[in-house]
Amino acid sequence: MTLQEELQLSKLPPPGVQLMLQLMLTREAVVRVQERLFEAHGLTIQQYNVLRIVRGGPVKGHPIYEIEGRMIYRFANVTRLVDRLEVQGLLKRVADPKDRRVSRVVITPKGRRLMERLDEPVESLSTSITSCCDESECLAMADQLERLREHCQQQDGMPEALVGAVN
């Protein structure tokens, strides 16, 4: 379905707006597919993200603020996510020997086993989702999206002229 059909637009907006709309719609489509996979394993997409970060981190674990900084979906309440994963026995907090005010989050053996069981399905899902593109197209698109993301990060928020136009 085209952008114009999906959003029932009478006319197409400028190319930059089309790109932004396509990015938002594509993100939602990918998330919906991923959510089904993670829900089948008793996780939300945000919980999977936390487990992914902690599993790939140092053996001594990450403090919560480091996990927050590495999150893909940054709107999540990481402390609450860690609490829920801890109740499930997938993560645990350990005291930081250098600073007793800080606790570090480490993955438990149960959490590691779950992530190992998810490795193949996550990779297969990614391959399936991107099967409409060949390897060089995937890499080219990834490079373009990285370039766009870096440009957005350099913008440091909305330009002041636009903020005034919105208010």
Low-confidence regions: none
Query: So what's the CATH class?
Result: Mainly Alpha
User: Separation of termini?
Assistant: 34 Å
Q: What would you call the shape?
A: globular
Largest sheet: number of strands, sense, barrel closure = 3 strands, antiparallel
Count of domains: 1
Please report the number of helical segments.
8
Residues in helices, as a percent range: 55-70%
Second rung of CATH, namely the architecture: Orthogonal Bundle
H/E series, N to C? HHHEHHEEHHH
Total strands: the figure is 3
Task: Say which CATH homologous superfamily is assigned.
Answer: Winged helix-like DNA-binding domain superfamily/Winged helix DNA-binding domain
Oligomer state equals single chain
Structure overview:
By secondary structure, the protein is mainly α. The protein has one domain: Orthogonal Bundle (Arc Repressor Mutant, subunit A). The chain has eight helices and three strands, in the order αααβααββααα. A three-stranded antiparallel β-sheet has the order 1-3-2. Strand 2 (91-96) and strand 3 (99-107) form a beta hairpin. Helix 2 (15-39) crosses helix 6 (109-129) and helix 3 (45-55) packs across helix 5. The longest helix has 25 residues, at 15-39. The protein is globular. The two termini are 34 Å apart. The mean pLDDT is 90.
Features of this protein?
167 residues, mainly alpha, Arc Repressor Mutant, subunit A, 3-stranded antiparallel sheet, 8 helices, 10% strand, transcription regulation
What's the short story on this structure?
This protein has 167 residues and is mainly alpha-helical. The chain has one domain (16-151): Orthogonal Bundle (Arc Repressor Mutant, subunit A), CATH 1.10.10.10. The protein is 63% helix and 10% strand.
